[in-house]
C-alpha cells in the first residue's frame, strides 16, 4: 500500500503499511538519517520531528497520521528560530556524543517558534522529554537563551 508524506516541503510516495512508524519512513525509505532512533517508545526524544510545526515523536507516530501534514526534519528546518538555534548550538558547543542532538534542536526550535522569550521553567518543560545521556542540559538551556536573545 502506498502513503504520501510531505517531508521538508517535498511529497514522497512510499510503499509501506499505514502503521509503519514515521521514523522508519524518514530514515529507511527517504534516507534522511539525521533523525535518530533511541528508545522506540516515545520516551527519549531522539526521534523528534515537527508535524505541522509541533514537535512529535516519530518513532511512535504511524505514517497514516502524518499523511496530509507537513513534516519537518533536522535536514529541512530553516525558520528564523531554527537558524538562531543552530548558531547558538555551534557557538556554545552543546553536543557531546551528539546522538540526542537533532531531537534536542527540533524541540528547542518548536519552543522558540511558539514562545520567543521562554523562562527557565518554560525551557525545562518544553525540553523535559528530550533525554541526553551525556547530560548536556546546562549547555542546552544556555543555547536556547542565546538563540532567544538573537531572535529578540
Ligand atoms: S526513539 Fe522516539 S522517543 Fe525515543
Ligand atoms: S550529546 Fe550524547 S546523548 Fe546527548
Key terms:
Ubiquitin-like (UB roll), 41% helix, globular, 2 domains, five-stranded mixed beta sheet, 152 residues, DNA polymerase, domain 1, 6 helices, binds FE2/S2 (inorganic) cluster, alpha+beta
Mind explaining what this structure looks like?
By secondary structure, the protein is an alpha+beta fold. It folds into two domains: 2-72, Ubiquitin-like (UB roll) (Roll), CATH 3.10.20; 80-151, DNA polymerase, domain 1 (Orthogonal Bundle). The protein is 41% helix and 15% strand. The protein has six helices and five strands. It has helices spanning 22-29, 63-66, 80-92, 101-114, 120-127, 137-151, and strands at residues 2-7, 10-15, 48-51, 54-57, 70-72. The chain has a five-stranded mixed beta sheet with strand order 2-1-5-3-4, sandwiched between helices. Helix 3 crosses helix 4 and helix 3 (80-92) packs across helix 6. The chain is globular and about 45 Å long. The N and C termini lie far apart (46 Å). The mean pLDDT is 97. The protein binds FE2/S2 (inorganic) cluster (2 copies). One FE2/S2 (inorganic) cluster is lined by residues 95-101, 132-134, 136. GO terms for molecular function: 2 iron, 2 sulfur cluster binding; metal ion binding; oxidoreductase activity. Keywords: 2Fe-2S, Iron, Iron-sulfur, Metal-binding, Oxidoreductase.
Brief overview:
With 152 residues, the protein is of the alpha+beta class. It contains 6 helices and 5 strands, in the order ββαββαβαααα. It starts with a strand and ends with a helix.
